[in-house]
Amino acid sequence: MTVARALKIDRESAAKFSFLLAAPIVAAAVLVDITSFTLSIPFFVGVIASFIVGLIVIKFLMDFLKKGSFKIFAIYRIILGLIVIGAFFIK
To answer: pTM for this one?
Structure first.
């Protein structure tokens, strides 16, 4: 979303695109878990619960983006990323 905002894409479109990019990855993770583990009720309850919570969080974030900004979060991620890269090279 930070890169999309840097490319002058509006906040709502950047967020929608970001969430759409995540959907196939999440679906693939569920499919891998289904094929590698025994199917159980707790697994399906977890998938359904995470889907519902994900929808609620996406709705909250979309409403937040209409009023607020992720600028502080973007700065935090950049600083944290630089710290992690620095720590990797120092080790």
So the answer is: 0.56
**Amino acid identity, residue 38?**
T
The angle at the Cα of 66, spanning 65 to 71, to the nearest 5 degrees, equals 40
Tokens of 69: 């900004």
Helix (H, G, I), strand (E, B) or coil at 25: helix
56/69 Cα distance (integer angstroms): 19
Burial zone of 15 (CB within 10 Å; 0-12 exposed, 13-18 middle, 19+ buried): buried
In the chain, what's the furthest Cα-to-Cα distance? 46
pLDDT tens-digit map of 35-55:
766 677 887 888 889 889 988
Helix (H, G, I), strand (E, B) or coil at 27: helix
